[in-house]
Amino acid sequence: MYIKLKSAVSFVSLICLLPSLFFVCHAADIEDAELLFEKRQYAQARSEFEKFAKHGHAKAQYYLGIMYYQGKGGPADIYQAYAWFSLSDENGFRAAGEEIRRMRREIPSKRQAKEVAESLAQRYSNAALARKLYPDYDGSLGTMPPVSVKPLKAVPADSSGFVLLQGDINEQGQLFNVAVVQALPNNKFEKSAIEYALSQEYTPLIDNNELLINENVLVKVEFRAQSESKHRTYHKLLDTYHRSLLAKAENHDVEAQIALAQLMSSGIVKSHSSEVSAVPVYWYLQAAINGNASAKYQLSKHLELGVGCLANQQKATYWLEQSAYQGYPSAQFELTRQRLANKPSKRQLRKLVNTLEQLVEDDHKNAHQTLALIYATSKYDDFYFPFKAGLMAKDGLYEDPNNPDYHAILAASYLGQTSVDRAYEYFYLALNHAIERNVPLKPYVELANALEITLDTRGLELDEAAENELKNTQLVFTKKDLKPLSRPFPEYPVDAMRDAVEGWVRVNFTVNEEGKVEDVKIVSASPEQVFDESTRRAVAKWRYQPPKVNSQPTRIENVSVKLDFTIK
Fold first, then answer.
1. To 10 degrees, what angle do helices 346-361 and 329-338 make?
2. In this structure, is residue 195 part of a structural domain?
3. Closest CA to 222 of 186, 261, 184
4. Of 329, 357, 378, which residue sits at a domain end?
5. Predicted pLDDT of residue 207
6. What is the DSSP letter of 516?
7. What CATH number is associated with residue 120?
8. Are residues 394 and 498 in the same domain?
9. Residue 204: count of CB within 10 angstroms of its CB
10. Which InterPro entries does the entry mention (predicted)?
11. Cα–Cα distance measured from residue 156 to residue 384, given in angstroms and rounded to the nearest whole number
């Protein structure tokens, strides 16, 4: 079987990007906004309270009313103050009702006050927020699917208990970055639970045909006593623990709200109540209203998947954006991927790359892979760094030697450096390892297609599914098959080295029938006129194996190479 690979399109246009991403961190919770208020940083405090108030936070709505009433952080507005106090009162904040009763005699126009309050309620009342932002509960309990929660087989023990772990699952199906998030009883099973969880094999995450690290996965490890009396004792302890968390959660304790949602999501606590408070997505919503970024991310996942509520992509995207803007890495990366939908402008791509580079600095593995792909395939020279992409791919293969994505990225990076033989070698490795891991072959075929690589799949061990995926393709040689023999790198200009100037040059040339380089032309460069001359001199000395088509010597024109000049 052959694969026919057609037109040359930069692969970054296949993973394209829409609106730009620019993340700004906001106050993490209501206490941060209150602290700004206490420090008399009123303008910033008003801005932060407004964010919480618009999500339905009663205390923030009260504070916003105070600030409008007293003119702190902006102009005084008694009608806005009355409107926010009214919303806070509706949400059960007692002090807001007292303020309303006190200020009624001061309101110049009761009619105008009513109109402003009704206008605000149309946007930010509980009913309005339920329509726009809150989940629509569907009556299900909302246990998360195995992609997010991994329940393991119960472990026999001398007493019963549980440990809830959180960690990441790599592309090989191994758990890492493990931490204990809850345990009952405390300081008994944690070590055994971690050892047991690390010894298990997990299913790697394949999302939209892409092999990714599965982040923030909950792993449930339960221990089961053989004695029924001991097991009943544990259930009484669990019931007490559950009630304690519930009381704290109802009192706006964010940590308790998240802990309660995790217990429910993992199925450790099962409720037969029809109340929405028995559903984990409800508690993620409460923690999100309280400003918790991880809760906003989990809320977005529940809304996306329809777990414990009706699926709603618009609401899911809203909460994902809110989490990303607070700097939550998983949300930032996922939002980036969601916006890989249309061809980006150069300006849009620059902002996206900046976001990915920041995530990579923070050791985000999925961002590392995505950024390496952009460096290896971008149609914009400002982001096309095949040598750097190759180094990143080798870093990824050091951690996971059989990772098909990094093999494909390395193939693209070698192609960008006109090392065609190595490119073919690593594309075949990518396909083989994808087959081994049951990863769809489509993204690798699309990447090869975009780069005009022709692959002969007859040597691959394809099962029926893979055969069907690749059928109806033909072999057509279209790529310039150039095999470099000697390619000395240009000398770094003395002045540029002295002034620590870095940059790149895009050069086009022809390889004649003898494998010699002719017609060297500088197509573009940054900065201009700095590295051009040294590039011309070096490229003119390059030598290739004499190219042939159908065993006949031939000339290969319009060979394009980008050379990066960096000071190490």
1. 150
2. yes
3. 184
4. 329
5. 84
6. B
7. 1.25.40.10
8. no
9. 18
10. Sel1-like, TonB, TonB-dependent_transducer, TonB/TolA_C, TonB_C, TPR-like_helical_dom_sf
11. 55
Per DSSP, what are the bridge partners of residue 156?
224
Which bin fits 269, alpha (ψ -120 to 50), beta or left (φ > 0)? Answer: beta
**C-alpha distances out from residue 240 to 237, 245, 246, 294, Å:** 5, 9, 10, 26
- Indicate the Cα dihedral angle 114, 116, 120, 121, nearest 10°: 10
Q: Which two tokens stand for residue 117?
A: 């309050």
Q: Is 125 helix (H, G, I), strand (E, B) or coil?
A: coil
Q: How much is the pTM? A: 0.77
The residues, any chain, with a CB within 8 Å of residue 101's CB and separated by 6 or more, are none
Nearest to 308 by CA among 427, 142, 146: 142
According to the model, what pLDDT value does residue 120 have?
Answer: 93
Q: Write out residues in the chain with pLDDT < 70, as ranges.
A: 1-28, 141-148, 271-274, 341-342, 452-481, 549-550
pLDDT of residue 368: 95
Which residues lie across from 165 on neighbouring strands?
180, 219
Report the relative pairing of strands 161-169 and 155-157 from DSSP bridges. unpaired
The tally of domains found in the chain comes to: 4
**pLDDT value, residue 87:** 94
Note the pLDDT of residue 2. 32
Q: Say how far apart CA 419 and CA 380 lie, in whole Å.
A: 21
The verdict on whether omega for the bond into residue 185 sits within 30 degrees of 0, i.e. cis, is yes
Q: Are 273 and 264 in contact (CB under 8 A)?
A: no
pLDDT for res 517: 92
The H-assigned helical ranges of 29-172 are: 30-38, 42-53, 58-70, 78-90, 94-103, 110-124, 126-132
DSSP 208: T
248 dihedral zone (left: phi>0; alpha: psi -120 to 50; beta)? alpha
DSSP state of 19: S
By residue count, the chain amounts to 568
Give the per-residue SS3 of 283-294. HHHHHHHCCCHH
Residue with tokens 């300081």: 187
Do 557 and 380 form a contact (C-beta atoms < 8 A)?
A: no
Give the SS3 label for residue 179: strand
Please give the Cα distance from 277 to 502 (Å, whole number).
Answer: 58
Contact 335, 369 (CB under 8 A): no
Please state, in angstroms and rounded to a whole number, the distance separating the CA atoms of residues 560 and 541.
Answer: 16
What is the phi/psi pair of residue 169, to 5°? Answer: -115, 120
Structural domain harbouring 465: 339-470
- 553 upstream amide cis, omega within 30 of 0: no
- As a whole number of Å, the CA-based R_g of the chain is 30
Max CA pair span of the chain: 98
Residue labelled with tokens 């089961």: 224
Query: Of 276, 301, 329, at which residue does a domain stop?
Result: 329
Instruction: Name the amino acid, one letter, at 310.
Output: L
Same domain, 99 and 123: yes
Count, in order, helices (H) and strands (E) of the chain: 23, 16
Three-class SS state of 8: coil
Instruction: Compute CA distances 192 → 144, 183, 225, 228, 552, whole Å.
Output: 24, 12, 15, 22, 68
